[in-house]
Design a protein that fits this description.
The complex is a heterodimer of chains A (183) and B (385). Chain A has 183 residues and is α+β, with helices and mostly antiparallel strands. Chain A has helices at 23-30, 45-50, 55-72, 79-86, 171-175, and strands spanning 40-42, 91-93, 101-103, 107-110, 119-120, 130-133, 139-141, 163-166. Helix content of chain A is 25%, strand content 14%. By secondary structure, chain B is α+β, with helices and mostly antiparallel strands. Chain B is globular, with a radius of gyration of 20 Å. Classes of the chains: A alpha+beta (183), B alpha+beta (385). The interface between A and B is large, with 61 and 98 residues.
Chain lengths: 183, 385
Amino acid sequence: MSDLPRRRFATHHRARLAFGGLAVASLTLSGCEDPPAEPLRFSSVEQCVSAGYERPFCQSTQSAALAEHERSAPQYSNAAQCEAEWGDNGCQRASSGGSMFTPLLAGFLVGRALSGGNSYYGGSGYYGSPIYRSRGGQAVTAVPGRDGIAATRMAPVNVGTTTVARSGFGGRGMSRGGGGWGG
Amino acid sequence: MRRITLPERSGWRDQAQAVGFGFHEMYGEPYWVDDAAYVFTLEQIERDIEGPTEELHQMALSLVEDVVGDEAALERLAIPREHFDLVRESWRQGDPHLYGRFDLAYDGTGPARLLEYNADTPTSIFEAAFFQHNWLIDRIDAGHLPQGTDQFNYLQESLVEAFAAAFPADRLFHFACWMANEEDRGTVTYLMDCAVQAGHQVDLIDIRDIGTDAQGRFTDMAERTIDRCFKLYPWEDMFREPFAAHLRPGLFVEPPWKAILSNKAMLPLLWERFPGHPNLLPAFFDGDPRAAGLARAASKPFFSREGENVTLLENGVAVDAVAGDYADAARIVQDYAPLFEAGGQHAVLGSWVIGDRAAGLGLREDSSRITRNLSRFVPHIIAAD
């Protein structure tokens, strides 16, 4: 125990928060475009944990990246084509089986920021995005419109549907002046 | 228990700004107090706050167990009849809950007394869990407080744990609130962050942007179904709004059964169930002749927030009152408990339950004996031996 044993409750060093407190909520409200966050890159869960994040967070982020990779990594019909793009030893057989090749999954991204507004969601550009190593050794990710990689698409766990009505909650709050419902 | 003052931390406002804690001032008044603290002994915290909080929580749960099987009690709690099944089902199928805050009157001597239970939409969790903790660590690092100084606060760790333990990360976890309110939005963002730490995928939505699809499922702005949703919006309102017909158990956090506890009508029911319990104050429904026997009492609407429409009575005559939007609501009368008083301030202890564990404390003080929306948040410490 590096922590001081005399303190029963408060730990001296806490895991870092993904949003860094509430700052993201302010950014969201002020309508800024993507905040200038610097996503962190990790090649393993252990590396992510040792950077101070919670293990379940690191694990879920890595799984999100893997899922996104399986879904949307660029595919090549043979190793030579793939390696022409991604360098020698830069490719692997696609996990979907068959004869396709994809770039090697080199790691995953952890962003401090929400991507595209309110979402903090796997595989959509920041958090949980797969990382590849380009021919030149640069880490790249599949952000739409960058580096010539096909745009990734978020594939939600939740079912897609069509909304037929909105604003069915919140009205009574409105009638009281919208003053906050916490107590 | 005592109140001390110390010089404020230089740069704490910048720190607050940096983490988005813009509501350290509210209504043009300071809300976060950096230059004072309430001091407890470890014995006071363990014996008088932590233990009783867990006991009160268990008592509250056993009250829910009774009430869901008792239509007359559901009626007395002003839960609309058409939602009895929703409340019952959510309890019987074990819909998990996340958190709640007991407001306690305590002055360092004698038992802490329950003023009310914010079981549905409690706020001030960010201040208590995060900013208060940083305050302590800064103070220790700066040498203002001795190394062994503690704080009853493992709120953040407990929230992450509760999010991981109570909810499988098998679907998107939506977080809904009234986004125009900075304090509510901050509270929800913080909780969302704790959920992310626990491995959840999350999305934030304004409560008014929730939609429904043709099957009556709730939907978000990206046309996805909402399958699990934290909402910082009271059940008593959701029960009575247009989408109420689409409500079902197993979806919202806090769950529908919390409507039984977030309601001040639970106070007389709890007193009936556990008469004379040292952590309870005698409480009665308005009009109960026993209420007239209380020399000093507080009259409270079932659902008011932030002290609205609370009236202090002496021998049945109002001596102090706060205006508000709940004037016409049904009321309860509760025996008066003096608050800890120092420097012209009255302090209320907010003792948090996360999951089923007492996990931390936050204090708010007010110049009035009724804690209102102008009350201020003051950090606390447990003195080193």
